[in-house]
Amino acid sequence: MFAQEQTNRINKLDKNGKFSVFLSNPHGPGAVAFGPKGQVFTVERSCTDPGGHMGIKPEDCKEPTDVAVLTPERKVLADSFMGKSLGRVNDLIADKKGGIYFTSGGAFYLPPGGQVMSIGENLRTNGITLSPDEKTLYITNGAEVVALDVQPDGSAKNQRVFAKLPSGGDGMTVDAAGRLYVTTPGENSGVQVFSPDGKQLGSIPTPRSAITVTFSGPGKKTLYVGTMGALDPSGQEVRTPPGVRNVAMTMYKIPVLTQGIKDRAK
User: Fold this and answer.
1) What pTM was computed for the model?
2) What is the pLDDT of residue 212?
3) Residue 228: which region, alpha, beta or left (left: phi > 0; alpha: psi -120 to 50)?
């Protein structure tokens, strides 16, 4: 599953590469995560896309951004922190209790039925994920990844630099052995791979700018990497009119020897 804000959809790609729309959501889903009871969680960016995909200029957007559950029916779980807007929410990961860690400039935690709490300090965030045992929270912070120790109430402490990146980090996932996979877009495009203790094990280069990654497929032994840019049916690069942000994407499948966490989508 993957969200695409500009088409207001959460899409599905099956093991044979067949594409379909899993869920239509008119509130601009920017990322998707699954809860312990099969809930579909998302961050909703509303009409804040710089490309104005909903026909509304960002400065005229009145609908607040939020964190929401979409199944069995849509319900907004949080749309503010300490009375202020969440801003342009970015990524999220759900824990086994049904709490949600998400990023939006900084990092936050939304406990089940509770109030949003801030996580970490002085962070420029993008991607976020949990270790297999959910005792460690990983967050990208510009050209590095920080790690924090998760507390019983979902808060996190002991922020430290876990790994350095060749450029700003984006999406992340972990495998069953606790290795961390981080996408880096741009000139150093690819997936950076780190051991559980933060040692860089190598990188997987991608033909296009990598922004998101997850394990899926039979046995969860395939990395799916979302990248920016795509070819149209005629084989030409997808272009957009001036002033419209180009968000065409290509998905790559990478067979690997390791495997993702079987009972977690991310």
Assistant:
1) 0.95
2) 96
3) beta
